[in-house]
Amino acid sequence: MHVPDGFIDAPVSLATGAVAAAAVAVSLRGARRELGGTAPADGLGGERTAPLAGLVAAFVFAVQMLNFPVAAGTSGHLLGGALAAILVGPFTGVLCISVVLLMQAVLFADGGLTALGVNITDMAVVTTLVAYGLFRLLLAVLPRRRSSVTAASFVAALVSVPAAACAFTLLYALGGTTDVPIGKVFTAMTGVHILIGIGEAVITALTVGAVLAVRPDLVYGARGLTAPLQLRTSPLRPGPDAAPAPDAAPAPAKPARSTRRFALAGLLTALALAGVGSYYASASPDGLEKVAHDKGIDSKTEEHAAKDSPLADYQVADITDGRISGGLAGVIGVGATLLVGTGVTWVVVRRRRDRAAAAENGTAATGTTA
Q1: What is the SS3 assignment for 186?
Q2: Which of 78, 106, 218, 332 lies 20 to 30 Å (CA to CA) from residue 148?
Q3: Is residue 74 classed as helix, strand or coil in its secondary structure?
Q4: Model-level pTM?
Q5: What does DSSP assign to residue 194?
Q6: What is the pLDDT tens value at each position of the chain, 370 positions in all?
Q7: What are phi and psi of 207, to 5 degrees?
Q8: What is the pairing mode between strands 68-71 and 74-76?
């Protein structure tokens, strides 16, 4: 659903650019809590999310290269807002998808540069807000089980895609550059994106379920799902309220589980999907491209400013073998997205730590003066 330059006029593009900038600014503040917070009582620490946020962005980039067929002559791909929000939190999710869209526009000429605000508003903000809001609502009424997280992920992802299609239709009604009846645009966009939403839901639920199976502590949306461990006592052992023996040594703290192995597995998966799996992706136009062509929306499409990029159209310039060229472009894209996404999240965490340290020093100084 990457909107190219020329679909939406300049005033609406500027307005959505302002909305996108505001959303990213708010998300930077919100992500400080998601990425740099202290561990809650159930042991699901916020800081463990930080090194994984860049990985989530890289994974979304990789999976977006895997277009899947949804109808005759039409394909779809993951938008990723629901997946990112559930794995690393809604504010961090907006940042992850925004980084993906930026990398795609600048490096691969996918999605217009003047339409970047439109794409961030539609594909990052709308999908994340709709998906995570519905996800939390479903968890509030479903049993407190891991299977409920997976089921809620499926429904949230399914709904987020036609919601994004409706948002595009609204933006097109406000600033479309061609004279196409808005009713036809709405019907065509929602119809095909409901089908794409099914694919989005399957990918999201499978991914969330897989992470839950091996590291449930790393799923932001599952925090607080598991009750703290309760120790039962027997008549032969002192109860929890009994005073410890004078010589009893305190139990050693359980070390935090390392995320390195999990992160490495995720990175290798993303590289394999982008470097090898993308070759087998559907070559049919995606939902927006198909609707735009059929309805004449694309008649005023403008040439991309980055059309001469050495990675334009997900091909490495001067490499004639399509499989090698596309696979190498995918690997480069995963690496670039990982670096930028990780850099953004570490800046957020560092600023959180600096502010916390400054506040602590101020408190200590006040106490000393008193």
Answers
A1: helix
A2: 78
A3: strand
A4: 0.88
A5: H
A6: 899 999 999 999 999 999 999 999 999 999 988 886 544 433 344 455 666 899 999 999 999 999 999 988 999 999 999 999 999 999 999 999 999 999 999 999 999 999 999 999 999 999 999 999 999 999 999 998 999 999 999 999 999 999 999 999 999 999 999 999 999 999 999 999 999 999 999 999 999 999 999 999 899 999 877 544 444 554 555 555 555 555 444 444 444 567 889 999 999 999 999 999 999 999 999 999 999 999 999 999 999 999 999 999 999 999 999 999 999 999 999 999 999 999 999 888 887 777 767 776 766 666 665 5
A7: -70, -50
A8: antiparallel
Q: Fill in the DSSP letter of residue 46.
A: S
Task: Let me know: does 345 contact 92? Beta carbons within 8 Å.
Answer: yes
Residue 79 token pair: 């938008």
**Residues listed for the chain:** 370
Q: Are 95 and 27 contacting, i.e. CB atoms less than 8 angstroms apart?
A: yes
Structure tokens, 298: 């694309």
SS3 327: helix
List beta partners, residue 75: 69, 286
